[in-house]
Specification:
Blueprint: H1 6-12, H2 15-18, H3 58-68, E1 75-78, H4 80-92, E2 99-102, H5 109-116, E3 120-123, H6 134-140, E4 145-151, H7 163-172, E5 176-180, E6 202-207, E7 220-223, H8 226-235, H9 243-253, H10 256-278, E8 283-286, E9 293-298, H11 301-310, E10 316-317, E11 327-331, H12 335-346
Parallel strand pairs: 2-3, 2-4, 4-5, 5-6
Antiparallel strand pairs: 1-7, 6-7, 8-9, 9-11, 10-11
Helix pairs in contact: 3-9, 4-5
Bound molecules: pyridoxal-5'-phosphate (PLP).
Length: 348
């Protein structure tokens, strides 16, 4: 078992990024009262968004710090967690030399970010029950492996990764482990966030796109050591979170009870969908899910997919993914939408 320290983490960062001087925005160059702003070439006519946004999304970080119980200096706000996936790849992977390791079937952006940044993508397929093949995974990495992507709960399978296995991997992987908790609001007790400080090489990502119901505003968060957060800030675009997003997200974060109520509704709808689908002859198997979606194996997924599409109902075809032959991923919708889905399936 290895112990990682901040010094080790520094040595994982691409040297050009480690020594980069970040862009200094007009608003961060002074301290004190600001009555008249003539420093950023903005328009002075107040329409609610004539000023540049606060660069570090501080109000949002404060709100998340309170909700999640994490120091705001250990929080980075991204334009969706998609942006964070790309930034982490850029910070740690030397193009043409380093590699990242991931466990398909899983979220597709890890591979896309590797491709954009010319990092080798090493895929180790999850076992048929979508648990982690620990021995095989450990054989896959080497001294150029900079990132291990773990997605828990995993998309598209819907299952949590075993916490003891996750811990063992964080401790033994020689680079950065990113634990993608995009769906954690559907099972908050499983989050690794309370243990963040135990692991200097851990980045936890979360999003407002799922449980919080704000995919359209584009807001994701990374939780990590202050050093890693500083690196994320160093390479971000100066104003990555626009004023409209910051205001909308903040308003929602001030009402966590609304999110919780909706999450509860979606979890019970997912359970209802599962119960009903299990009575259908078309369904071979439903993978256990702790999220707002189900991965369902049908006897003939293409036929089901086309039939639903004919009825104007779109689900996600996952048949091309490893260990997901004949599988469709179905998101829990509003109760009446789920009724329509079930009714459409009964027609077959
Ligand atoms: C596992 C996982 N991570 C990240 C994302 C992207 O989140 P965001 O909307 O914050 O970019 C998704 C979206 O489907 C996802 O499934």
């Amino acid at each position: 078992m290895t112990t990682t320290t901040t010094t080790d983490i520094k040595s994982l960062v691409r040297p050009n990024i480690l020594h980069l001087t970040p862009y200094s925005s007009a608003r961060s160059e002074f301290k004190g009262r600001a009555d008249i702003l003539l420093d950023a070439n903005e328009s002075p006519f107040d329409n609610g968004h004539n000023r540049y946004p606060e660069p570090l999304s501080t109000d949002i970080r404060m709100a998340l710090a309170e909700i999640r119980g994490v120091d705001p200096d250990k929080i980075f706000i991204g334009n969706g967690s998609d942006e964070i996936v790309d930034q982490v790849t850029r910070i740690f992977c030397i193009p043409g030399k380093d590699n990242v390791v991931a466990l398909p079937p899983t979220f597709g952006m890890y591979k896309v970010a590797a491709g954009i940044n010319d990092a080798e993508f090493r895929a180790v397929t999850l076992l048929p029950d979508f648990s982690i093949p620990v021995g095989k995974l450990k054989e896959s990495w080497d001294e150029n492996s900079k990132i291990l992507w773990l997605c828990s709960p995993n998309n598209p399978s819907g299952n949590l990764m075993d916490a003891a296995v996750v811990e063992e991997l964080i401790r033994s992987f020689p680079g950065i482990v990113v634990l993608d908790e995009a769906y954690i609001d559907f099972i908050p007790e499983a989050s690794f966030l309370p243990r963040l400080d135990e692991f200097p090489n851990l980045i936890i990502t979360q999003t407002l796109s799922k449980g919080w119901g704000m995919a359209g505003v584009r807001l994701g968060a990374a939780y990590a050591s202050e050093f890693i957060v500083t690196m994320l800030r160093t390479i971000k675009m100066p104003y990555n979170i626009n004023v409209l997003t910051q205001a909308t997200a903040l308003a929602a974060l001030r009402q966590p009870e609304v999110m919780r109520e909706r999450v509860n509704t979606l979890v019970s709808e997912r359970k209802r969908l599962e119960r009903d689908l299990l009575t259908s002859d078309l369904v071979d198997y439903i993978f256990p899910s702790v999220t707002n979606f189900l991965l369902v194996r049908f006897s003939d997924s293409d036929r089901v997919y086309r039939h639903l599409l004919d009825r104007g109902i779109v689900v996600r075809n996952q048949s091309y993914q490893p260990n997901a032959k004949n599988c469709l991923r179905i998101t829990a919708g509003l109760p009446e939408e789920n009724d329509q889905l079930l009714a459409a399936l009964r027609e077959l």
